[in-house]
Amino acid sequence: MQRAVNGLHIQPDEVLVDGNQIPKLLIPTLAIIKGDSKIPAISAASIIAKVERDSLMFNYHKKYPNYSFHLHQGYGTKQHLAEIAEFGFLAIHRKSFNPLRTLLSQQS
To answer: How far apart are CA 22 and CA 104, in angstroms?
Structure first.
């Protein structure tokens, strides 16, 4: 989230976060639990992010059909973890995600 905010071309006056954790930013930041159901701007951002993620996952599926990205949209399902165990990690995999970190440590 820090990279996203810091990469903006326009500096916002405030950052609203859907959740209970605030990233370290130099901009006033407010965490709002269930913010996507309370704040229209967070709702809109959530929809845009999900549509973009789904498009990205569909394109990843076309490029890497062995990984079923089109079915799980980036969530660490048992099927996807089994595919990683069978076919290996890709550069696009988030190695900081706990189930993937565990798989990596088992392979070392």
So the answer is: 29
pTM: 0.72
Where helices occur in 1-108 by DSSP H, the ranges are 2-6, 40-63, 69-72, 78-87, 98-107
Confidence label for 81 from pLDDT (cuts 50, 70 and 90): confident
What is the overall mean pLDDT for the chain?
90
Dihedral over alpha carbons 38, 41, 46, 49 (to 10 degrees): -170
Cα–Cα distance for residue pair 26/6, rounded to 1 Å: 9
How far apart CA 45 and CA 97 sit, in angstroms, is 23
27-66 burial, b for 16+ CB within 10 Å, e for fewer?
A: eebeeeeebbeebeebeeeeeeeeeeeeeebeebbeeeee
54 dihedral zone (left: phi>0; alpha: psi -120 to 50; beta): alpha
Largest CA distance in the chain: 47
